[in-house]
Structure formats: C-alpha cells, structure tokens
Amino acid sequence: MTVRLSENTLSCLPGDVARPGYDRQELSAGIFHFGMGNFHRAHLAAYLDELMNRGLALDWGIVGGGVRPEERAGRAVLADQQWLSTLVEQSATVSRARVIGSMLDFVPPGEGAAIIERLSRPDIRIVSLTITEGGYFLDADDRFDASHPDLLADAEAPESPRTVFGLILAALRVRRDAGTAPFTVMSCDNIPHNGDVTRGTLTGLARLQDPAFAEWVAGNVAFPNGMVDRITPATTDRERRLLADEFGVTDGWPVFCEDFRQWVLEDRFPLGRPPLEQVGVQFVEDVSPFETMKLRILNAGHATIAYPAGLLGIEYVHEAMADERVGAFLERLEQTEIIPRVPAVPGIALDVYFSEIRRRFANPKIGDTIRRLCLDGSNRQPKFIVPIIRDAIADGGSLEGLALESALWCRYCAGETDAGAPIEPNDPHWETLRPIAAAARTEPARWLAQTSIYGGIGDDARFAEAFAGWLDKLWRRGTAATLEAYLQ
Question: Which of 55, 145, 172, 200 has a 20 to 30 Å separation from 90 between CA atoms?
C-alpha cells in the first residue's frame, strides 16, 4: 500500500518521509517562478522549504507560471497534489525523501493576462527563471538575437506577449504606471553571467517596444548573477516506482536528485529577499569565477562523457563513468585542456572540485541518463565547450581533446550509434543538424561552418584540422578505437 501525496494525506505518510513542519496556510507569496520543472523544485523550492521549516521566509512562497503548452500537464499533476512535491536526495549509499511545501499556486500556462496580473501585485518581489539555456534568445556570440520571430511578435503586440520576457515587461509596465516598485529578476539557469544575460534580453525586447521604457528597465530593475548546481534528472516511471517501492508514496511528479547542491549569488535585491545564507547559499560580490569553474569543469565535463557514451549505447551516466575509455577521456581532457583554462576561484581548490565532480557523476543512485546530457547540444556547446576552444586557440595550447569532443557531438548528430541503432531526435534543431552532420563525414568544414554555434573558430586552421582528423577516425574506426587513439 502506498499513500497518494496530497495536503490531506501528509499526516499519513510513512515515518521516514519528512514533511513540512509549518502551517502552509500561513504562507504568502513573494516569488513568481517561470519554469516549474525538476531543477527548480530541487533547488530554489527546496532552499525555501528549509527556511520555512525554521519559521523563516513565510512570506516568500512561490507562485509558478509558464508559456509552453507542454507545461500544462505538469501543472495538472501538481494541482492535484495541492502543489506539493516529493524530493528524494540520493548519495551513493543513502536516499532521503521529503515533501516540499513552498509552492502556493501555478497560474495556467498560456494565460498571459492572468500571469501579468499576478506579476503586477506588490507582494511579488522576485521573479525567478529556469527556462533552460536556449530560452534567452541569444546568438552564437551570446548577444541578444533581435531577429527571433517570437521576440518580433512581442515587439509588435506587447499587450499580448507570447514569451516570458514579454510577460515580465508587461507586468513591469503596469507596476511602473501604478507606482509599484519593480521586482528583482533572478535567473537560476545554467548560463554564464545569467543576470547580465537576462538584463540584455529583457532590455533588448523593451527597446524593440519602447526605447524610453527600456531605459527605465535598465535603470530600475535588479538582475543578480548566480551560479546554480545540482544534478537533477528528468522524472520517469522509474522514479515513480522507486518512490512507491522505497518510501510508500505515490507522487505523479517526484523529483530525484543528488545530495550535493551549490548556489552562489550576488546580493542585489532592492525589495528584499529570503535569508538564504542561513541554508547554505553563498553571497559574493562577483559570481564570475564560480560560474566559469562550474560551466567548464562540470558542464563541459558532462558534454565530454555524453557523446562518446551515446555512440557506445551506454544508457546511464554512472555506467559511462565505469567505462574505462569514457572515464579516462574525461580525466585527460579535464586535466590537460579544461582545468588549466579555469581562473582561480576564491576558497576553492580546482583539483578537489574536480574530484567531487567525478564522485557525483559516478553516483549510481541518480539514474541520470546519457540522453539527457546529450540534449540540446546546439544551445549547450556554444556555452560550455566553444569558449574553452576560443581560449585554446588564443593561447596556442593543446586543443586535441576539445576537437575530439566536438567531433563526437557531430558524429552523434548523424543520428545512429556505432552499432547502427537509431538516435531519436535530441535537439530543437535536430532536423537541421542531422543532414549537416552526415555531410561532414566527407566535408568536415560543413559542420564548423555553423556560425550560430561556432562563431568564427571553424576558420582556425589548427582546430579545423584536429576536428577533421578525429571525425574521420570516428567514422572509420568507431568511438572506442578513437578514444583509445586519443588516450595513447
């Protein structure tokens, strides 16, 4: 027998499942969050739940919202559970389950007028975002892409926005006209300088609508930069079964994550903020060194193991780490080409940080999939891998491993594993990428000519030659033999 999660069944949960120690009726809203997915519920929502269990931050409850139709299904599940979620934190040996109660409501996705009205109320003091790396409308040089059709539509019809940024601007306009102070906009996405990027996209769209309003936004809205980290796989039937079997709870959308978490944040919140430092958030003057460390060592590390493992037919991340060739590829690339290009980080030894990364990747409890790591390379490669390649070109140092990583991604996008099994579409631009990857088998320059991904680095002769050589080996000899050649 299992207990179906709801407000009415909290007292019936098994004793080893923690539940909110506060009266949720006493909570009030303070944060509106776009992107109520797994990472948000394992990160910001979990930090707030801990504060609330201490009797703090009771006026910082979360209201959710979104713009994508596919978010409606998740909202329906959460609504049926009165916005409760079960969070299972897993080390390699121990799993702990707790019910998160910091969410209060979820405005139906696509109901723009209702979202704008809720954002306009004075109780909302922070608007936070987890809209993925591809949600910020950036070009290959990480600049605002004013030509995107969705942005052009919001520029033409600001009163009926279709994007998150259009909704935020509409609400800010209402607040300005009503004399209500603007909320802080806080990105929790995994992109360099996420606050600055958010400012650029929001003011860029505002400039398309009304240049004077754009100046007001730039001068009055705060955009703190932050670095977030917690490995949080997507929920599948596997996780639902594990929760039922191990903890006796039925939850339509539980969140499984690792036991590690990190959040480094700049303290720029004019309307106040929860006392997050009391639950482990580190507030700093400049988050940049922490961002670079994480994006290069962890996220580029994920990309390093993802594509060879995908081509070898490996399903889970911990299995990839157990493969001698994939694990050794990660070790060598990190030690020779990635970590040497990470600037010093206050209070952190990079070798110790990488050792912790290896431990986290190898955690068998997480069940993180290789397919998830391979997802959306067209948005992730320009942020995690290409900047390191640029540095390698500039400093004249080794770039062989980076070129091999790029070749592995290209080979993956051709759409079949080394064994000939089909790779299902795994990128928003899959239909564009696949024929280019196929053509690159004989014309490797075709792949590097995608300036929206690589900018101008494909014109560098040394990198282009290394890329072409590795891609040729991958097609002729396969992934395992190519990794062995690199390691030798």
Answer: 55
Task: Give the integer Cα–Cα distance in Å for 104 and 106.
Answer: 7
- What average pLDDT does the segment 287-315 reach? 97
Is the confidence at residue 199, as pLDDT, over 80?
Answer: yes
The residue count for the chain: 488
**Percent of all residues in the chain with a pLDDT value above 70, rounded to a whole number:** 100
Residue with tokens 């493969």: 323
Domain architecture of the chain: domains with CATH: 3-284 (3.40.50.720), 288-487 (1.10.1040.10)
Q: How confident is the model at residue 140 (pLDDT cuts 50, 70, 90)?
A: low
The strand pairing partners of 186, in sequence order, are: 128
- The first and second tokens of residue 80, run together, are 């049926």
Nearest to 324 by CA among 474, 480, 475, 482: 480
- pLDDT for position 198: 98
- Spatial separation of the C-alpha atoms in residues 69 and 72, rounded to whole Å: 6
Query: What mean pLDDT do residues 367-374 have?
Result: 95
pLDDT value at residue 87: 98
* Residue 13 per-residue DSSP state: S
Rounded to whole angstroms, how far apart are CA atoms 105 and 32?
A: 9
pLDDT tens sequence across 376-413: 999 999 999 999 999 999 999 999 999 999 999 999 99
- Say how many C-beta atoms besides its own lie within 10 A of residue 167's C-beta: 24
Tell me, what's the pLDDT at 191? Answer: 86
Token digits of residue 306:
């993802």
What is the average per-residue pLDDT within 197-210? 97
Contacts of 386 (CB under 8 A, 6+ apart): 453, 454, 455, 457
Q: How many CB atoms lie within 10 A of CB 278?
A: 13
Residue-wise DSSP of 75-119: HHHHHHTTT-EEEEEE-SS-EEEEEE--EEEEPPTT-HHHHHHHH
* Phi and psi torsions of 39, nearest 5°: -60, -45
Q: How far is CA 50 from CA 25, 55, 82, 223, 443, in A?
A: 17, 9, 19, 24, 54
Residue 141 CB neighbour total at 10 angstroms: 12
Q: 264 vs 194, 226, 228, 426, CA distance in Å?
A: 12, 6, 7, 30
Sign of CA dihedral 192, 196, 200, 201: positive
How distant, in Å, are the alpha carbons of 340, 395, 423, 462 from that of 402?
13, 14, 23, 12
How many Å is the Cα radius of gyration of the chain? Answer: 23
| 138 has a pLDDT exceeding 90 | no
Contact status, residue 89 vs residue 140, Cβ threshold 8 Å: no
Q: Residue 70 class from Cβ within 10 Å (0-12 exposed, 13-18 middle, 19+ buried)?
A: exposed
Separation between Cα atoms, residue 158 and residue 171, nearest integer Å: 11
Task: Specify whether the CB–CB gap between 409 and 381 falls below 8 A.
Answer: yes
